[in-house]
Here is the input.
Amino acid sequence: MAEEAYQQTAIKMVNIEKYFGVVCALRDINISVGKNEIVGLLGDNGAGKSTLVKILTGVYSPTRGDMFIAGRKVDFKNYNVRKAHDLGIETVYQDKSLGEKQCLWRNFFIGRQITNSLGFIDIKKEKAIADEIMIHTIGFRGKGITVESKVSQLSGGERQGVAIGRAMHFQAELIILDEPTVALSLKEVRKVLNFVHKIKEAGKACVYISHDIQDVYEISDRFIIIDRGEIVKSIVKTEISLKGLDDFLLEYAHGLKDNG
Amino acid sequence: MAVLVLLYGAFLITAPSVFTHPLIYMSFLQTVPPLLVLGLGLTLVITAGEIDLSFPAVVALSGFAFSWVFKNIPGAWAPWLGVLAALAAGALVGYLNGLMVAKAGVPSIMATLAAQFFWYGMTILLAGGLQLNLKEVESTAVHTLLTGRIFGIIPAQAVWALGLTVLFWFILNRHTFGESIMFIGDSPVVARVMGIDVEATKIRLFTLMGVVAAFAGLLLTIEINVFFPNQGSGFMLPVMAAVFIGGTLISGGKGSIVGTFFGSYIINSLQAGVVATGITSYWVQSVMGLIMAAAIIINVSIGEGRLKGITERLQHWGLPIRTQISLTAPKPGGQTKTDDASHRNGKEEG
Here is the structure.
C-alpha cells in the first residue's frame, strides 16, 4: 500500500465525519499524509474537498472521528487556526492568505509578530527576517519587490510564493494549498508549481487541491479522489498515467461509476 | 501637508489681521484637541473597516457622568471619581457597540446609529434637559491637569492631544493591535485565516473609541466648566471630515494618524478661517464644504498617484494647468502611475 512507503505520517484522519445539520458533507474519511509526501486532492465541486481542508486547518470541527498530527491525537475542543499553526499546519488559499493593502513584511508575521512584552512590534527584526525569506526561501531576487512592497503590487503567482514562503519559514510540517492556481496565467501557475517543488525539497509534506489535473499530476506523489463526501480511491503516481487519472475522474464526473 | 500650507496661504491673504495674530493659534490649541482626540479614535475604527456614529452621544454622556458625580458625591476625590465615571461610561457604550457589531453581527453603521440615538436620549433624560454649572471645578487639580494653562498660556489639552497622537501612532503602526486592525479592515476573512481574533479585536476597538470619546467629552466639559446635554452634537461631521482629509481610507485597511492630526487642524482652521475672511455668514457652510471637497480630492489624488491623471484631464478640457507637484511629474524612463504610487506608499507610512 501507498501509506507504507511513508512510515511516519504528518497527518492522519480516522473515520472523520462531518454533518451540517442533517446534510452529510464527509463520511468515513481515512487519510494519511507522509512526512515528505505531496498528496493531490481531487474531486468535483461540492465533493467535500474544502470541508476536509477546513477540518484539517481548524476552521471546522468534525462531527465524529479522530485526527492525529505527527502521531499525536488532536483534541478538537481545543483546536483552531492558531493551534493548527502551532502544530505546523499552514494553509495557502487561492486569494485569502494575504492582506492586500499591507506591506509584505507585515504579511509575513501577521498573527505571529515579534514583539516586546507590551505587544509592540520589533519592526527591524521582522523586516530583516522577511528580507531573508524573500531572497533565500522564495527566491525573489532583483524583481523590484521589497519587503516594503504592498501585496496589491504583486502578481498572483508571486502572492502564492509569499504565502508559501511564509508557511515554510514558520516550520510548517504540512502545507495545504487550496486551489492556489485558480485565475492565474500559465506563467504564474508555473511559478506556483516551482514553489511547491521547494516544499518537497525542504522535506515537508503538502496537500495540493486543484481542478487542474495536469498540475496535480506533475507535482503529487499520490492522488486521493473524493466524491460526494467519501474517498473513492487513493492512487500512487507510479501506478497511473495522466491519461488514466483523467479518464478515471471523468467517469465519476459523468456518474458512470457509482460508489454506492 | 500640502493642503494645510495652501489653506494657510489663502487665509493669510484673505484675512491677514486674524491669521498673523498669535491669538488665533492659541485659540486653536484649545479648540482643536477635542476634535483631534475624537479623530484619533475614529481613525482606528475606520481603518478596521467599521464606523462609529455614537461618539457625539458619548461626549455628552461622559460630560454628564462627570458632572453628576462631581455634584452629588461629597469629598475631595469627587472630581477624580467623576473622571473615572466618565471614562467608564464611555467604555460601557463602546463595549456594547462592540458586542453588537462583533457578536450580533449588526453592521456598525446601524449599531452605532442606534446607540447614538439611545445614549443621546438617555443623557437628555438623565440631565432633565438642563445644563449644569460646574463653577467649582475650576479650583480642582483635575481642571488644572486636563485643561489648565501651562506657563499660563498653553492649554493643557493641547499637550494631551499631542501625547495621544503619538500614542495612537504607535498603536496603529507599531503594535499588534494596530496591525490586527489594518488586516481586519483589509479583509476580515484573511485576518481570521491568519489567526487574528476578529471579534475580540473589534470589541476592544469600539471600547477604546468609547473611552477616547469620553475623554474628549471631559476636555469639553471641564474647559468651560459647564455641561450641556447637547455638547457633542456638532462633532459628528467635522471629525469624520478630519479623518478622511487625513487620508484614512473609507474602505478600511489603511489609516493615517499623522493625516488625522493635520486634518483636525485643517477642519478647525476652516471653521475659523472662512469666518475671518469676512464672507457673509450665509455662505460659510457652503464655502467650507467646497474647500473640504477640494482638500479631500487633492489628498486622495496624491495618495493614489492619480493627480497626474486629473491634471491631464483638466488640460484636456483646456485648463492651462501645469503640474505643480513634482512627485507626479513623468520620469524620463516613462514609468507607470502605479510605480509612482508604490514608491511613495513605501516611504509614507503613518
In short: Residues 198-224 of chain B form the longest helix (27 residues). The first strand of chain B starts at residue 132 and ends at 133.
